[in-house]
Design a protein that fits this description.
Blueprint (H helix, E strand, L loop, with lengths): L2 E11 L2 E11 L7 E11 L4 E12 L10 E12 L6 E8 L10
Antiparallel strand pairs: 1-2, 2-3, 3-4, 4-5, 5-6
Length: 106
């Protein structure tokens, strides 16, 4: 069983949109509990085009059987582009987890 207790905040500063999240995952005694932190900053260039940067971090809060605490941080860049009048879009990260490029069409 896992439960997340998140706190989120967002703001708009000029043309930039900023969203942040801080949370704590509660787990059973066989799995480490962990902290999550993330922030995304984006900009709407037009009604049809947006671009975003994201950093996300997850870190164990406790150790299980003396194992080392784990930590994973990812950096992502992405965007969304409306392709036609039916609002079909291309969206998603274009780079995620340094060295692992990803393309996604929706």
């Amino acid at each position: 069983m896992r439960s997340n207790l998140p706190i989120t905040a967002n703001a708009r500063i000029g043309p930039l949109r900023i969203d942040g999240e801080l949370g704590y995952w509660f787990t059973n005694h066989n799995v480490p509990q962990f902290w999550i932190r993330g922030q995304i900053v984006g900009r709407d260039f037009s009604e049809r085009t947006q671009a975003y940067l994201e950093i996300y971090d997850q870190q164990d809060a406790n150790r299980i059987d003396g194992a080392a605490k784990q930590r994973e941080t990812t950096l992502g860049a992405g965007g969304r582009q409306t392709l036609n009048s039916k609002k079909n879009t291309y969206s998603g990260p274009v780079a995620q987890s340094i060295g692992y490029p990803v393309l996604q069409a929706v």
